[in-house]
Amino acid sequence: MNDQNAGLIRNFYAALAHADCDAMERCYHPEVSFGDPVFLELEGRGRVMGMWRMLLSGAGGVAVAVRDVTARRYDGAAHWTASYVFGTTGRQVVNEIDALFRFEDGLIVRHHDEFDFRRWARMALGRPTGLPFGWTPMFRDTIRGRAMQSLEDFMRAG
Predict the structure, then answer these.
(1) Which residues form the signal peptide (predicted)?
(2) 125-153 burial by CB neighbour count: b if 16+ within 10 A, else e?
């Protein structure tokens, strides 16, 4: 176990839990990349932090719980739970997420979150949309396109 990198992961999630974007940003390498089932690949600290700022700007905030933090010299992992109200529908979401990290220069240079897209869609969008369509490629592409457009709009307005 690499205590410095494990501490970096814990610091990141503590900052996320407090919606402290400046502290989150200090955990990321300038050339960080982020990916998850919705935002497939975001490159660079500006875009990655733009996503976090957009997500944290919603009413009600995000409750964060992290566990199972492990870290070695170059990589790490954690499991975290994000609880929030999905802004588009007003529905409660409790998302279980597995995160993988790569470290460079004492910072997070790669952050990848993985979660069950179909389960998330069912919670966020409800029935009938989320249940039957949450797994189809066309539906996923639609959600991803909307998310990226929202990010672009948010960053332009900022």
Answers:
(1) none
(2) beeeebeebbeeeebbeebeeebeeebee
